[in-house]
Amino acid sequence: MITPNRYAMYSRPAGKIAKPKTQLGILAHNLAQQTAITILSVAATSGYVYALIENAAPNITFTDLPPSMQGKSTLAQLQGVYTNFMSQYAAFQGQAGAWINTQPGTATPSIFSRLVSVPTTLNDINDTVAGNFVLLNSLTPGSQAYANALNQQETLIGANQPAIRSLINSMTTLGTNLENAATALIASSKTGTLSQLLAAYKDDIATLNAAVSSASDEIASDNAKIIGEGVGTATSITVGLVGLLNWWNPFGWIMIAGGAVGAYYAIIEIEYLKARVAELTHEIDEDTNYRDNDQTAASLVSTFCQLLAGFSSMNQAAQKELLTLENLYNTLNTDITAALADLTNNDLRDAQTEWTTILTEAQFLENLTAYIWPSPVMLSSPSSFAPVGNDIYSLSLSGELFHYTGGAWSDMGQTALSCAGFGTNLVAIDGAPINGTAVTPNPTTPTYFVKVYNTSSQTWSIISNFPAAAVAVGGAGIFAINQLTSDRQVYQYSGSGSGWTKLTALPGPDAASQIAVAGGTVFVLANNSQLVYYYSTANNNWTQLTNFTCSKIAGNGNMLAVLGTDNTQYLYQPAASTTGTNTVQVAQLTTGDQYSIDINQNLWFTEAAQPTTHTKLAENVTGVFASDTNAVYYTDNAGDLYALGASGTSIKLPAMP
After folding, report:
1. For residue 131, how many other CB atoms are within 10 A of its CB?
2. Percent of the chain with pLDDT over 90
3. Which of 220, 390, 568, 572 is least surrounded by Cβ atoms within 10 Å, i.e. has the fewest?
């Protein structure tokens, strides 16, 4: 469930452009800023639509009526209206597919595939204006030739605008159709048998909605919209837009930060927000499990209606940002003419330089529109980086898998949604994100099956026949979380073919959201309780490890790193001890040593023997990773990858192709 009109943008530039000093610079800054806001708004709406499409409702067979419905409806009527509601919801999902994928046999590309037109228009207009600056500098201000050049510029600017208008029209048409379908679905829940079902559990629903609304308020107050004074260079700004959603599973509710845009889960602010969401999830009194079919159905209908209302709000907000951008373009030539008036030659060159500098640095915005990755409901704890020994396996934003060895990268000819490695094993979740630049053919639907790479024969094999939400590998073998909402439990690979053993269900009951392997033991982070458990093979049961809520776990060798929802990092070993605070990400070494990133993007080293002493190694760090042989790597907010030497020195590695 998303709270309408509540979403936040995050950016952390490596270095800000100084506040514009000229009118032309201010105009360029406003264009770049509004383009960023528009991209994020449309991308977040697209991500939200994709999450709605992915969301699968369970099949429910009613066996009795709630007491308050006795004499008002029959069991057959209840079954019929619920089944009909879910059928209409499925029809809405099918219609919403046109937002993400270009439909076969149609000439109209999807809305998501045309999102790239927003930054492309800005770049094309910048090329037009910058080119005209060269001509203007050779002419006398106020002359007829100068006026003609400005008039020609207006024509050229106008020629670049139809793509924005086309996107607005498409969003208006499809958005209106989807909003009408959503309105009809919501209305159907307020009359007849469905309204009786909702009334029977109105207190439960009201409690859940109030708790989630309160959590949304806290997220909104903690994370305001941040654009900054300007835009950063290249990919130095990592930007994401987040909505708070609440998804159903058989054991409770999955609260997620949805619609992240940018460097996919390497975003410091997103990592911090995920920890905050995890903490708020634990605070919600939700009765954790809905065992009764009628109670579950009531909660589902209520939640789906609010999800649909959330789409309407996000769609309208995105269209508003597009219209604001279009209005800036409509007056752009007049505004440029006014900004250039009465400038001396030196002032004119300074203003033009400021314009060119700002809009050239805004070109990185095109990279933010390219892909939509699955929501955390489908992929609960993805990893795009798997160091194995002295080799590196890494996913690009397009999902392509690359291998780094011997000082060079090579394309493995595979796509994946997550990867993990240990020893000689590399495992991955099959699939790829939705490609926003591909109009045809339509993107391939991910299988989410687990696949393993044989480093000797250099071949891949699919080893699961169920979709995985997460995968981990260690000394105890390969483990995966079943993605299906009817399951969400941990499985262990048998070692051959596609045979897996389902481990006993988590206490609660609860669902697993993360898995890690350390010391031959598998550990999980439970979704609803946010507690860490470990599995005993001998006793076939789970034992609670932490008495505090957690947001992340990572294993290596015999050591387990645990990150609390209060951003305190821990090392689990026989004499466990607190090793740091304000942490958003941690990499665990087999020696017990840890490398961590704080909320200010600083990289720290903590020796296991001195857990209260921390050594700062680098700044502007967005991700840190450790292999099973204790090779350590980190990424910065410019997208560069570094290896850490024995003395703590940073060695920059070549960029992926």
Report:
1. 11
2. 20
3. 390
> Residue 337, Cα to own-chain centre: how many angstroms?
41
Nearest to 45 by CA among 253, 261, 254: 261
Q: How many whole angstroms separate alpha carbon 184 and alpha carbon 143? A: 61
* Domain that residue 655 falls in: 572-657
Q: Are 284 and 261 in contact (CB under 8 A)?
A: no
| Same domain (yes/no): 203, 229 | yes
Cβ atoms of 171 and 318 within 8 Å: the answer is: yes
Residue 149: CB atoms within 10 Å: 16
Q: Are strands 641-644 and 521-526 parallel, antiparallel or unpaired?
A: unpaired
CB atoms within 10 A of CB 213: 14
The answer to whether residue 559 sits within a structural domain is no
Residues 96 and 228 in one domain: yes
What are the φ and ψ backbone dihedral angles of 229, each rounded to 5 degrees? -75, -15
Averaged pLDDT for residues 99-122: 80
* Beta strands 240-249; 8-10: pairing state: antiparallel
Task: Report, in angstroms and rounded to the nearest whole number, the Rg of the chain calculated over CA atoms.
Answer: 26
To the question of pTM greater than 0.85 for the whole model, the response is: no
| Averaged pLDDT, 425-434 | 90
DSSP, collapsed to helix, strand or coil, labels residue 352 as helix
**Phi and psi (nearest 5°) for 382?**
-70, 155
3-state secondary structure of 613: coil
Q: How many domains does the chain have?
A: 3
Q: How many CB atoms lie within 10 A of CB 59?
A: 8
Task: Work out the pLDDT band at 288, boundaries 50, 70, 90.
Answer: very low
Q: Looking at the domain assignment, is residue 198 inside a domain?
A: yes
As given in the structure block, the two tokens for residue 228 are 């900054």
Find the mean pLDDT for residues 175-200. 89
Residue where the block lists tokens 């995968």: 471
Q: Is residue 551 part of a domain?
A: no
> What would the pLDDT profile of 208-265 be if each residue is shown by its tens digit?
566 555 554 544 443 333 223 233 322 222 223 333 343 333 333 333 333 333 332 2
Residue 252, beta-bridge partner list: 249
Read off the pLDDT of residues 61-95 as tens digits, 9 standing for 90 and up. Answer: 887 888 888 888 898 998 999 889 889 988 998 88
In this prediction, residue 586 carries a pLDDT of 86
Task: Tell whether omega for the bond before 387 is within 30 degrees of 0, i.e. cis.
Answer: no
Side chain identity, residue 485: T
Question: At what angle are helices 293-330 and 75-100 packed, to 10 degrees?
Answer: 30
